[in-house]
Amino acid sequence: MITRERCEALIEKYVTTPWLKLHMKESDIIMQAVANRLGEHEEKWGLSGLLHDLDFDYVGKDPARHVVEFDDILKMENLEVGKDIDKDVYHAIKAHYEENPKVPEKRENNLDYALSASENLSGFLVACALVMPDKRIATVTSDTVLRKLKKKEFAKGVRRDLIQDIEKTGISLEEFIDISLDSMKARASELGL
Ligand SMILES: [Fe+2]
């Protein structure tokens, strides 16, 4: 599996939007926490979070090309699926945008469900932090998050159904929120939160 250093170099090369870089990092942090909870490989799950939107700036944020052209980057960088990128990591990255009709992979296993849930929750937790009086994630509680998830007009773009799907891995929604919040609070200064 590709090293973290190489992943960071790829991000430097292909991702220019500051919020997107942060979003990928936050997804990495939450995925590590989820892997730890499930007894899975923390570094590998983290890297799937770190890389999942690698092509988003490259495709000009075009949803029709998103995730499809991840393959182009792999080809240009001589990265092989099954060698440099584990097959299940590749599958989860593709399936995180299965809504794209050009993507054949579907969410079907714990890594797939965890990646989609984590990348959606990471954005949601940032949105929760930004409406706190001090704008700090330290102030956000699990209750705040649960309450705001029920408000459809809050952070409308976040897919609540995909966050809820964490339960397919055996982790309850409440626990998922707890471990994700804790993991992001522990790295708050790095994330500027
Ligand atoms: Fe994402």
TrEMBL record:
<dbReference type="Pfam" id="PF01966">
    <property type="entry name" value="HD"/>
</dbReference>
<dbReference type="GO" id="GO:0016787">
    <property type="term" value="F:hydrolase activity"/>
</dbReference>
<feature type="domain" description="HD">
    <location>
        <begin position="23"/>
        <end position="101"/>
    </location>
</feature>
<dbReference type="InterPro" id="IPR006674">
    <property type="entry name" value="HD_domain"/>
</dbReference>
<keyword id="KW-0378">Hydrolase</keyword>
<protein>
    <submittedName>
        <fullName>Metal dependent phosphohydrolase</fullName>
    </submittedName>
</protein>
